[in-house]
């Protein structure tokens, strides 16, 4: 089975731009997560989907961050408008359910100038 | 709410040294506990997982024991190698029994040859 696929691997944006990050979860997994990773804050949850339904939309990230799951095999994370403080690694992960292994993609490194 | 604490931000060792990474957790239940490892340029991947049923996890020479009394889940390895250099995350399944994991901030291990 293929793992979690994230594209692009790197993204450079100007302040104020809109960017869309993409994720393909492991086939058959019901739960999908978006995390933001920084050295200071560690892994912060942005969004959580179960069977394509949005279960949690990380409070502090609601205003400019929007995750969608268009079908069971594809999800996007839109950041609009981008700000320099959004520079981080964005990780997508999927799992079959509670207590099971969470599989991560390699991440998208975003730099906002 | 649920939380995970890793006190050590960075650990530097020489090859064949003993490794100990501290992890404590706070929760109202007895959740499944995990250690994830992240190599440069990759997403985190499962290192080991422990439930209340088995109490101890062992993988690739690493081991961790679930200690309900001290609410700890420290990671140990008898003899580290340069290839063990990575970031190590302790995590637990959140109380809502979703697939969501709560992560510690991570401990960067650097092993010098």
Topology:
The complex is a heterodimer of chains A (113) and B (113).
Chain A: E1 5-7, E2 10-13, E3 19-24, E4 31-38, E5 42-50, E6 53-57, E7 65-71, E8 74-79, E9 88-95, E10 103-104, E11 108-112
Parallel strand pairs in A: 2-11
Antiparallel strand pairs in A: 1-3, 3-8, 4-5, 4-9, 5-6, 7-8, 9-10, 9-11
Chain B: E1 3-5, E2 10-14, E3 19-21, E4 24-26, E5 33-38, E6 45-50, E7 56-59, E8 62-65, E9 75-77, E10 86-93, E11 101-103, E12 107-112
Parallel strand pairs in B: 2-12
Antiparallel strand pairs in B: 1-4, 3-9, 5-6, 5-10, 7-8, 8-9, 10-11, 10-12
Oligomer: heterodimer
Mean pLDDT of chain A, nearest integer? 92
Task: Outline the low-pLDDT stretches of chain A.
Answer: none
Tally of strands of chain B: 12
Helix content of chain B: under 10%
Number of helices of chain A: 0
Low-confidence spans of chain B: none
Could you please describe the fold and organization of this structure?
- The complex is a heterodimer of chains A (113) and B (113).
- Chain A is globular, with a radius of gyration of 13 Å.
- In chain A, strands 2, 4, 5, 6, 9, 10 and 11 form a seven-stranded mixed beta sheet that branches. In chain A, strands 1-3-8-7 form a four-stranded antiparallel beta sheet, with no helix packed on it.
- The model of chain A has no long low-confidence stretch (mean pLDDT 92).
- Helices cover 0% and strands 56% of the residues of chain A.
- By secondary structure, chain A is mainly β.
- Chain B has 113 residues and is mainly beta.
- Helix content of chain B is 0%, strand content 48%.
- Chain B has no helices and twelve strands.
- In chain B, the strands form three sheets. In chain B, strands 2, 5, 6, 10, 11 and 12 form a six-stranded mixed beta sheet that branches. In chain B, strands 3-9-8-7 form a four-stranded antiparallel beta sheet, with no helix packed on it. In chain B, strands 1-4 form a two-stranded antiparallel sheet.
- Chain A binds chain B through residues 4, 30-31, 33, 41-43, 45, 48, 50, 55-56, 91, 93, 95-107, and chain B through 32, 34, 36, 41-46, 49, 51, 89, 93, 97-101, 103-106.
């Amino acid at each position: 089975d293929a793992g979690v696929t994230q594209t692009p691997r790197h993204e450079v944006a100007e302040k104020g731009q809109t960017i869309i990050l993409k994720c393909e979860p492991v086939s058959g997994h019901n739960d999908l997560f978006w995390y933001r990773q920084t050295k200071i804050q560690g892994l912060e949850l942005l969004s959580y989907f179960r069977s394509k339904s949005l279960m949690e939309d990380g409070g502090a990230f609601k205003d400019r961050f929007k995750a969608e799951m268009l079908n069971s095999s594809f999800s996007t994370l839109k950041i609009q408008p981008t700000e320099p403080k959004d520079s981080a690694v964005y990780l997508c992960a999927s799992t079959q359910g509670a207590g099971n292994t969470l599989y991560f993609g390699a991440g998208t490194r975003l730099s906002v100038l | 709410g649920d939380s995970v604490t890793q006190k050590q931000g960075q650990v530097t060792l020489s090859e064949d040294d003993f490794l100990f990474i501290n992890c404590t957790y706070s929760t109202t239940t007895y959740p499944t506990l995990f250690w994830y490892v992240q190599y440069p340029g990759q997403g985190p991947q499962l290192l080991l997982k422990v439930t209340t049923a088995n109490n101890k996890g062992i993988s690739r020479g690493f081991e961790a024991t679930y200690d309900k009394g001290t609410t700890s889940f420290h990671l140990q390895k008898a003899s580290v190698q340069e290839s063990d250099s990575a970031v190590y995350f302790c995590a637990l399944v959140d109380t809502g029994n979703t697939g969501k994991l709560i992560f510690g901030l991570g401990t960067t291990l650097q092993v010098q040859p």
